[in-house]
Amino acid sequence: MIDGRPVDSGGTPDCTCIVIRVDSRAGRPSAVARGPEAGQETALATPLSDVIGREPLFVPPSTTVADVALAMREGNHSCAVVTSRPHGIVTHGDLARVVAERRPSDTVVEQVMSSPVHALPAGAPLIRALLLMLDEGIEHVPVLRGNRVVGVVTDVDVMRQQSASPLLVADRIRRAGAGGAHDPALADLPTDLAGVAASLLGDGVDGLRIAAVVASLRDALTIRMLELAERELGRPPGPYAWLALGSQGRMEQLLHSDQDTALAFAEQTEEAGEYFAALAERVTDGLAAAGVPRCPGGFMATRWNRPLDEWQRTFRGWLDEPHARSLLDAQVFLDLRPVAGELDVGVLDRTLARGRDRPGIQLALAQTARRFAPRAGRFGRIRPDRLPPAELKLRGTVPIVLLGRLYGLAAGSPERTTAGRLRAAVAANLISGDTADTLLDAYAVLLSTRMAADLGEEVPSTLSAPRRRELQGALRAVRTALRASALTHPGPG
């Protein structure tokens, strides 16, 4: 069987149709939420079985690269599936590397293939292939029916389905660099991201999945900034890890999300301190120049930059003594995820896992979450049309994120996404599957609405009546879940 890792951001795709228009005053795309047309099928919901065409090229692992190159050219294939166990894949890029490395043409394909491959089932929607390509930086996804490869979806197949493809944006990011970290090619990145988000909303993709796409593109930008900075500064004096925090760490970013970053390196030396301080400065400046705002709270690698053993001591202090100030810092770092670098930061995950046995920080998280409960009017009614846009974050997405952190910590889970944390809580019998599904559905609805606001709409006042009812149900679900948290983690809040 092909060993693949399907990407699923969780949540139920909402079927809202978004009408895209261009604001002539601002020159940017904006979105208006409408009800779906009857029987509407969006492009990214298309099953992969409907996207793949002819059968792929199969070659045994003992085939030479010369023969594979010939077969790919004659059949006009961009890749070949290698029938090894587990299966592998060879692309034009792999063959180009063989030539660049001056390896002999009789090199067997088993020595140059990528294996195991990342595959998806034939019934999976096209959006899954898109997310997998962005997440893994690949251009070919084998499609399975049972255990058999029946086709390969390529980046070109995905781009054909979209008017503004995130794969094209990712490619532009990877090619940027002629002007260094301030390359003019990146100046239009915010507009490109807005176009991608508007296109995905128009295809009926829910906000949780769009947020994952935005985060993947921000990851690609960060990696490129690091490459450019290392080109200027020279080889790092030791291994390091660039860490994403907050919404970037959770892969749940919106268009206006700011920088939340940190940097860990192996050992504290004078050379390491100077080098990584300069690296953090260059990358932070580069991200800001490309339209990613600096964090007003200072959660950036320019400040949070230290050796790994010091990070361990810091984390232990947060878990053992969750005071008000330390809790604010700890919550952002609960979402940490390595984006680039060779340093293994698994020890930080193991340190955070100790939170499972720390009722103090769990109680503090629960109390914080309940402070952001959606406000209800008379008879317990919630009127989303009367909420200012900022309230959708403070009274909607923020408490869901906080509950995800709470239950993920209580489950001792290394998961960083809100969906992953809630599912880990279900597996640990901390919450029911229905509760997790309801919260994730609510999260997707709220993120979709906030994404439309990022694109220039005056939400929720412009939403249709069905969409307002959906938003009202999402806020009600948040309120119910927060009340339930008082049963497992009682206390004021």
TrEMBL record:
Residues 52-105, 113-169 form the CBS domain. Transmembrane segments: none annotated. Keywords: CBS domain. The keyword Transmembrane does not apply. Gene3D superfamilies: CBS-domain (3.10.580.10). The keyword Kinase does not apply. This is DUF294 nucleotidyltransferase-like domain-containing protein.
